[in-house]
Amino acid sequence: MAYQAEISRENPTCILFVIDQSGSMDEISEAGRSKAAFVADVLNKTLYTLVTSCSKSDGVRNYFDVGVIAYAGSQVRSGFGGALSGDIVHPIHAISEHTLRVEERKKKVDDGAGGIVELKTKFPVWFDPKSEGGTPMRAALGRTIETVSGWCEQHPRSYPPTILHVTDGQSTDGAPEEMADGLRQISTKDGQALLFNLHVNTAAGLEIVFPTAEADLNDEYSRMLFRMSSPLPAHLAKFAGDKGYAITDGSRGFIFNGDPQCVVDFFEIGTRPRLVADR
Amino acid sequence: MRPADSRSKSRLPLAFSVPKREDQHNEDSFQRSAKGVYALSDGASVSFDSASWARILVRRYTRDPEFTREWLSAAIAEFRKLYDRDSLPWMQQASFDKGSFASLLGVRIADGGRATASRRLFLSPPPRSSPRRRS
To answer: So what's the architecture of A13-100+126-270 in CATH?
Structure first.
């Protein structure tokens, strides 16, 4: 059965974020922030959670290789800056060490005695919002194929890569669907790479989460992103179900027009491949 | 469980513990006292510092097996002294806040071996800022 490999330091898995940074991402959503700012914030929090899940008092364990492919204008490049900008994929240990900056935020926590205390907490930032130019989605997925196939060759026994693609618009460099089909065919011995798509949209329209059929979607572009998305494997379907989403056989890893919580959940579900082995 | 005969009064002669893998830190702890109190704690690897927490739990339980709210507060206070949360790098601070988890199995041999009392618990010290230094 696929998607059973234990994730360990010898057999890490790969999580790849593919992020649309085209000009239209600067549209302001109902919450009063740009889509780009919201996506950058969720991405920072997702990386924070991933690193934290690998951190112990004696250091950060390399359970994950993580990469960000950003695309905008005529460019497809690493979404990381500084020391991480040269390559796409990096061990999570390297990611934890190379932030753009560390901010101080306040969070409220249970004090263990029935009260709430406010704690000053260090919060790392890797991404600032960007939005500029066209949407070279086809080229971005081409780069993703290159990255994922190279990674799978080096990690034949690992849980296969998960790709979380966030976009708000139509590709401006040709049809991306065949690229997505190719991407989903790349595999390790544990199964095929998983591609999940998040269609952020500020236009009016119902939120559609983990649908089973493209007929549920009323715009052609969403239907294409649906077809590009992998069905949720059983363990992720269960996790999504536990979070309260209606999941049936054939639910795909696709969200259209999700509210902020739904977007946060999309990232959480996508980055929870399996529990790690060496616990 | 009823003791089979008087030999049940004898203490556990040997105890062994090995990590799951050779290159791993062993995060489990075991301790016994001369008074017939045994404590075993399984530290959860995917947590900040379960090894220290497990060690604190078994040491304190064998010394004082009366498990109360005060007992737990004292154990938490001892764990917190190990780290200055505010000066930890962000990734360790986040992991510290998430917690350090360990189970505790405590067994007391009472009444000359004719009775046992046991407790099974799963414990974690709650996250809280380190106490401020008083000037």
So the answer is: 3-Layer(aba) Sandwich (3.40)
